[in-house]
C-alpha cells in the first residue's frame, strides 16, 4: 500500500494550493479528487482561447491571496490566460451613503483580481503535475477512513492509501468531515444568489460595486473587455423564478432591478446557488484536519470565501515549517492545535462580520436603515480606520 505524509481529499482551489505549499516543505503529498479538471488545458496550457465564454464561477482574489499564489507559481499562468484587476470598490444603499475604497488608500496598484475558479484550479494542477513529491489521484472518491494515533488508513473507490495526516479540502459538503464525525454549526440563509454573465455597453471597468436594494445586494464584478459578472441576491423563490426566464426577459428584469450605472447589457449565461453558513466545530480531530470550505463556508457577500481558504494554506505552511525547523512532527497534536487556534479566530471574525452585514441590511426600512446609511456615509470619511478595514479585506 502506498504511504504519504499528507493525503489531501479535494483538489479544488484550496486543496491544490495546499498541496503545493506543503510539497515546498519537502513533504510527500497525494491529492485525491472526484474529477480531473480541464484535461485539455492541463496538457496544453497554450490551447486556451481568450475569446472562449466566461465560466460562471468567478472569485475576487485579494492581494494577500495573490502574494501566496505568486509564491507557489500559480499566479502568472492565470494572468496569461485571463483575469481582470479592480482598483476601486463601491458600496451604497441610498445615493448619499456611497462609500468608495481605492487601492491608492493602501499604496497599491489594485485591490484584487476577478478570476475564473476553473482557471485558478487548472493552473495549480499544472504546477502539481510538475512536482515530483505530489501524486494526483483523479478521478477517485473517498469511501472510508480508519484513524490511528499516528496515521490514517484511507479507502478510495480505487484502492487504499496510508497517510500520516489526512487533510479535508473537499468543500462545503465535506465527506472527510462526515467520516471523521466532526459536527458543524450553521444555517441556510434565506437568500440565494444568481450569477449572470453579461456583455456591458461600457468597456472594461476598474471598479467592483455593490448596491443594497430592499435589504439584498446587487453586485457588479468587472471582467475583461465588455464582459462582466452580475450577482443578484434575493429570496430563493424569486431567484428560482428569475433563473428560469429566457435571457431576453431576464435582461429586462436586470435593467429594472440594477442601478442605472449598469447601463445597457446583454445576458449570456446564468446559474443560481443557495447560500449557507457552515463552521466545523473542530478543524482538527486526531490526524484529520479541515481547510477551506470543508472547515468554513461563508456568505459570499464580500467575496471572501476562497481568500479565507488561502489564508488557511498560508498558516498551515508557516506552522508546519516552524515545527519541522524545530524538530517537531508536523502532525503532532501540539502543532495541529496551534494551527487551529490561529485560523479559527480569524475565520470566525470574517464569518461574523459577513453575518452582521447580511442581517444589518436585511431590514428594509426604519431606524436600522437610517443607521446603516449613516454608517456608510461615515465610513467614506473615516480616513485611517477606512484604510485599515480595506487592508484587512485585502488580506494584507
Ligand atoms: C455564489 C458564490 C460566489 C462566490 N464568490 C466568491 C468570491 O468572489 N471570492 C471568494 O473568495 N470566494 C467566493 N465564493 C466562495 C468560494 O467559491 C469557495 O470558498 C471556494 O470555492 C472553496 O474552495 P475549496 O477548494 O475549499 O472547495 P471546492 O471549490 O468546493 O472544492 C472541493 C473539491 O473537492 C472535490 N471533492 C468533493 N468531495 C469529494 C470526495 N468525496 N472525494 C474526492 N473529491 C471530492 C471536488 O471535486 C472539488 O474539486 C463564492 C461562493 C459562491 C457560492
Automatic annotation (TrEMBL):
Its cofactor is FAD. InterPro entries: FAD-bd (IPR002938), FAD/NAD-bd_sf (IPR036188), UbiH/COQ6 (IPR010971), UbiH/COQ6_monooxygenase (IPR051205). GO terms for cellular component: ubiquinone biosynthesis complex. Component of the Ubi complex metabolon, which regroups five ubiquinone biosynthesis proteins (UbiE, UbiF, UbiG, UbiH and UbiI) and two accessory factors (UbiK and the lipid-binding protein UbiJ). It holds the Pfam family FAD_binding_3. It comes from Thalassotalea mangrovi. NCBIfam families: Ubi-OHases. Residues 159-345 form the FAD-binding domain. GO terms for biological process: ubiquinone biosynthetic process. PANTHER family: 3-DEMETHOXYUBIQUINOL 3-HYDROXYLASE, UBIQUINONE BIOSYNTHESIS MONOOXYGENASE COQ6, MITOCHONDRIAL. Belongs to the UbiH/COQ6 family. Keywords: FAD, Flavoprotein, Monooxygenase, Oxidoreductase. One of its GO terms (molecular function) is 3-demethoxyubiquinol 3-hydroxylase activity. The keyword Lipid metabolism does not apply. This is FAD-dependent oxidoreductase. Pathway: Cofactor biosynthesis; ubiquinone biosynthesis. The keyword Membrane does not apply.
